[in-house]
Write a structure and sequence with these properties.
By secondary structure, the protein is of the alpha/beta class. Helix content is 41%, strand content 18%. It has 2 domains: 206 residues, Rossmann fold (3-Layer(aba) Sandwich); 148 residues, Response regulator (Rossmann fold, 3-Layer(aba) Sandwich). The protein has 12 helices and 14 strands. The strands form 4 sheets. Strands 2-1-3-4-5 form a 5-stranded parallel beta sheet, sandwiched between helices. Strands 7-6-8-9 form a 4-stranded parallel beta sheet. Helix 2 packs parallel to helix 11, helix 3 runs parallel beside helix 4 and helix 5 packs across helix 6. It is globular, with a radius of gyration of 22 Å. The N terminus is likely disordered.
Length: 384
């Protein structure tokens, strides 16, 4: 259930009764806290995450809960503001006294709240993409989505298959854009890729044609990689077609939501990106271990919400079920035991890949968990 605050009871007897009932109820629940960007610029991340957590907590409780206890879900909307996220993270620790946390829609928020949960010694599973969240490894911090280095690596892998080795990079000044650009630029020489043009755009920019024109006019560009987040990649995609660029355009998995396709329109057709298998669930071969889980989640989410599935909600689903399995193995909500069991997760099949955590790896995914996807006729298509 999602917690709802009630007005204070009046009268000493009522207060005593309420405190007794509350304490008794708390002993029979496992409290899971969450801070998500349900509204604001990152709502395309937080909204499906919230809906997913609520949907599955309801079902788990209806089936009897975990270890004989019901799950109690505390969700706060940070409005895509990292400062608000930290305030709510503190509330989860000090007021709500949660047992574990699934939180952090965007990398900025995820990093802002990390220290709060580390200090409180709370198991924290992040839903944001930045590798920095778990690198270096931090005892209490885990994360679900693929990282910037993985996005670069999968793009470079596809480029080489197409015999394309000279690229232009255009990136946003948002946290994700800067981090992915840095990773791609550093990784390129090791992968036999040459960056022949490197352009930057601001987070509030609404026209990237000058930067894209510079790329177009640079001799030898065989493909372009956009490192960005939010609405920037959709603007880049539209401007890309407008300036007449015809070489392949790659985006990161940060755009793996139908909202990107809707914003970019027909210009999105032909764009490639690495993404979780979830987006092309029905197109996966029957031998793919992710197919069953991906189809089950996609069918359930779309039926119950009336919205197209996104990988972001899928990460919330995976985080919750990984936590539930850790709780079952721990036999209680003891924070240290649950943390240890999350770290012991092996062969967990999620919508984002097969997860194998360890003391030195709090992500548990490798490059094989990505699929290369191309947008065709306004929809996702698996690149074989």
């Amino acid at each position: 259930m999602t917690i709802i605050r009630r007005s204070l009871l009046i009268g000493a007897a009522a207060m005593a009764a309420g405190m007794f009932a509350s304490a008794a109820y708390a002993q029979n629940t496992i409290k899971i806290g969450s801070v998500l960007s349900v509204t604001g610029p990152a709502s395309f991340l937080g909204d499906p995450e919230k809906k997913t957590l609520e949907m599955y907590v309801r079902d788990i409780n209806a089936a009897g809960g975990v270890n004989g206890k019901k799950l109690e879900l505390f969700i706060y909307d940070d409005g895509s503001d990292a400062n608000k996220a930290r305030t709510f993270a503190t509330r989860l620790v000090e007021e709500d006294k949660v047992d574990a946390v699934i939180a952090g829609s965007g990398s900025g928020s995820a990093l802002a709240i990390r220290g709060v949960f580390e200090e409180a010694a709370l198991p924290y599973i992040s839903l944001a993409g930045a590798a920095e969240i778990v690198l270096p490894v931090r005892k209490w911090v885990f994360k679900m989505p693929h990282t910037e280095p993985m996005s670069c690596g999968k793009i470079f892998e596809d480029l080489k298959k197409r015999n394309l080795t000279r690229v232009g990079i255009i990136s946003g000044t948002d946290g994700w854009g800067k981090a992915m650009r840095a990773e791609c630029v550093a990784m390129a020489p090791k992968e036999g890729i040459t960056v022949v043009k490197d352009e930057i755009y601001g987070a509030a920019d609404s026209d990237m044609t000058p930067q894209l024109t510079n790329i177009k006019n640079t001799a030898g560009v065989q493909a372009v990689i956009n490192c960005g987040f939010g609405q920037g990649p959709a603007i880049v995609t539209r401007n890309y077609r407008q300036v007449g660029l015809s070489v392949p355009l790659y985006q990161s998995h940060g755009v793996s939501s139908k909202s990107y396709i809707n914003l970019a329109g027909e210009a999105a057709n032909g764009v490639r990106l690495p993404a979780a298998a979830l987006l092309v669930a029905e197109q996966l071969p029957d031998s793919d271990p992710l197919k069953k889980v991906a189809i089950e989640y996609k069918t359930k989410f779309e039926k119950e919400t009336g919205q197209p599935v996104s990988t972001f909600g899928g990460h919330a689903r995976d985080a919750l079920f990984m936590l539930v399995e850790a709780l079952k193995r721990a036999g209680s909500a003891d924070k240290a035991k649950v943390r240890d069991e999350i770290e012991k997760t092996k062969n967990f099949i999620g919508t984002g890949g097969v997860i194998n955590m360890s003391a030195t790896d709090h992500l548990g995914l490798d490059l094989n968990s990505f699929r290369m996807i191309e947008i065709k006729n306004g929809d996702w298509s698996l690149v074989l």
